[in-house]
Specification:
The complex is a heterodimer.
Chain A: E1 19-23, E2 35-41, E3 44-51, H1 59-64, H2 68-75, H3 83-98, H4 104-132, H5 136-157, E4 166-167, E5 170-171, H6 177-203, H7 205-211, H8 219-225, H9 230-234, H10 241-244, H11 265-288, E6 308-317, E7 320-329, E8 336-340, H12 342-348, H13 361-368, H14 373-376, E9 381-383, E10 388-390, H15 394-398
Antiparallel strand pairs in A: 1-2, 2-3, 4-5, 6-7, 7-8, 9-10
Chain B: H1 2-12, E1 36-38, H2 48-52, E2 58-62, E3 72-77, H3 86-90, E4 96-98, E5 113-114
Antiparallel strand pairs in B: 1-4, 2-3, 3-5
Classes of the chains: A alpha+beta, B alpha+beta.
Chain lengths: 402, 122
């Protein structure tokens, strides 16, 4: 062909061009190991595959091999951020088995620990969202104020993160009047900051532009995919175990359910600020109206052998409804402990919500679901020879039909 | 804009939030659960701490000075410990205690095993 000649194409071969972008498992924007295989056509996301299994530790099996009391500390390690709710759910299951009722003071202290935890968990995810949006200074400021709440938790429970605060029949440490004063001072410091951050998220032009209308979920999506917690409440679905079950003392404290109609990422983040303020109000009420009595049981006199029975308990974790199923066949060890965490529903079922958005929106949407990866690692069998991945019933695994 | 200047001026005359780490460190709450302290003279070798430990971080081993301490005593592996404080609460004589010392990071893993009757280096 001579130079300068042009040939007009008569036929075109169309190849569907899909770009596969792996987001994770190690990714600067995501702070926990999860792999999102994002298939993008141009800039638009057309499909998302969610792969988990990077953090599986076999906690449920471990719980079967240890005594009921050791399991309180093992289930507390399922998740660092929401360890007191895990322990609370399990401890309440044991109390149902034994037919034991903790004293009122212990119930109040448990709720205080759980609400402080919700407060710092919500602040953490807001800070991470600020970092992902590019507001690194805002991240530092929120984390600085979160540190005050961590200090409050340390004063109450004895550790910043892993509280190990609850025991069958009460809590492990009581609260003196001096400590109540210190906690009140900390809450006074944090409250104006929370309101300021809430105003900031509401009014800042950049944050609004980045979050508004991104990752919208209709109430139908929520109910059909079984999404839980703040995600459901931000789409107008009023679901909260604290309201439905009224476990511990939620019937007595000034708890109000926060429901928003925004449906998008911004609504989820605003809802978390609002809930943080509600948690702060509950904590303040508890510190003011703490009943008298002995909250600490004598751990040495607790019964070692548990009666036969099955218990199913639910608790509202910062991320949604957390349930425990504990089965006892008598003796000192549980026969089965089944943990169903909210993140499992929220992350695995939410792949559809990324479709239609740009790649840059993927981390934003994921963070707005508040992923807690160590919570949600449960059983999946991967067959390397046939290259397939399937979910199995536990009885099949036990009988060796894998 | 005023808010920015206000914040800058407010923080200009404040002490920094961080501390100069190797020379000073943050104070812990008195009930903080940190490194163990073991008093071998109080120990009666009942082994309750070894039985209640959820992580099996405690082993019962003979002491170095076998003539003075002929029984088995708890040896704590800080690398396995989850700092729940059960050993302290169940100890009938108060021989094992959790201090507020949280400086336990070390390049030498042998330091993390607290042998009975021996003063720890870290």
């Amino acid at each position: 062909m001579a130079d300068g000649d042009t040939v007009e194409a008569t036929k075109a071969l169309e190849i569907p061009m899909l770009l596969e972008v792996p987001v994770g498992p190690q990714h600067p924007a995501l702070h926990e190991p999860i792999l999102l295989k994002v298939y993008a056509s141009g800039e638009e996301v057309v499909r998302v595959e969610i792969n988990t299994g990077y953090n599986h530790r076999g906690i449920e099996k471990l719980a079967e091999k240890n005594t009921f009391y050791k399991d309180i500390f093992i289930v507390g390690r399922v998740c660092g951020i929401c360890n007191t709710v895990h322990a609370n759910c399990y401890v309440r299951a044991l109390e149902h088995l034994l037919g034991k009722e903790p004293p009122a003071r212990a119930k109040y202290l448990r709720v205080l620990a759980m609400e402080l935890e919700r407060l710092h968990s919500h602040m953490l995810i807001e800070a991470v969202m600020a970092e992902i949006l590019g507001f690194d200074t805002l991240f530092m400021h929120i984390m600085k104020d979160r540190e005050l709440i961590m200090k409050a938790k340390e004063i109450l429970t004895g550790a910043r993160v892993l509280a190990d605060y609850q025991m069958v029949g009460g809590v492990r440490r009581d609260l003196s009047s001096e400590k109540i004063e210190r906690l009140n001072k900390i809450l006074d410091l944090v409250e104006p900051r929370l309101k300021y951050y809430m105003k900031l998220f509401e009014e800042d032009v950049t944050i609004r532009k980045r979050l508004e209308g991104v990752g919208s979920l209709t109430p139908y999506d929520i109910t059909s995919h079984g999404l839980l917690g703040p995600i459901a409440r931000a789409s107008g679905v009023s679901t909260d175990v604290r309201l439905h079950d009224m476990y511990e003392v939620y019937s007595e404290v000034p708890y109000r359910i926060v429901v928003m109609d925004g449906k998008d990422t911004l609504a989820r983040m605003m809802l978390r600020w609002e809930e943080a303020i509600v948690s702060l109000e509950i904590s303040r009420y508890i510190l003011k109206n703490l009943p008298e009595g002995n909250a600490v049981p004598d751990e040495k006199r607790l019964p070692r052998v548990f009666p036969e029975g099955e218990v199913y308990t639910a608790v509202e974790a910062p991320r949604g409804e957390l349930t425990y199923y504990v089965m006892s066949k008598g003796g000192t060890m549980p026969y089965r402990v089944k943990i169903r965490t909210p993140s499992f529903n929220n992350i695995i079922n939410s792949g559809f919500s990324y479709i239609g958005h740009t790649i840059a929106d993927v981390p934003v949407i994921l963070v707005s679901y508040d992923p807690c990866i160590s919570c949600m690692e449960r059983i999946t069998v991967v067959d390397f020879r046939r290259k397939e991945r399937k979910k199995l019933l536990l009885k099949d695994v036990v009988r060796g039909r894998v | 804009m005023n808010m920015v200047f206000e914040t800058i001026l407010k923080y200009l005359f404040k002490k920094p939030l961080t501390v100069r780490f190797p020379y000073e460190s943050l104070e812990t709450a008195p009930r903080y659960r940190g490194k163990h302290e073991f008093n071998i003279d109080k120990c009666i070798s009942c082994g309750i701490c070894w039985r209640v430990c959820p992580n099996q971080a405690i082993r019962m081993v003979p002491a170095e000075d076998k003539k003075k301490y002929p029984k088995l005593y708890p040896e704590v592996d800080l690398g396995k410990c989850c700092f729940c404080g059960l050993c302290q609460e169940f100890c009938p004589t108060g021989a094992i205690k959790l201090t507020t010392n949280y400086f336990m990071s070390t390049p030498n893993p042998d330091v993390l095993i607290l042998k009975p009757g021996k003063k720890s280096k870290g």
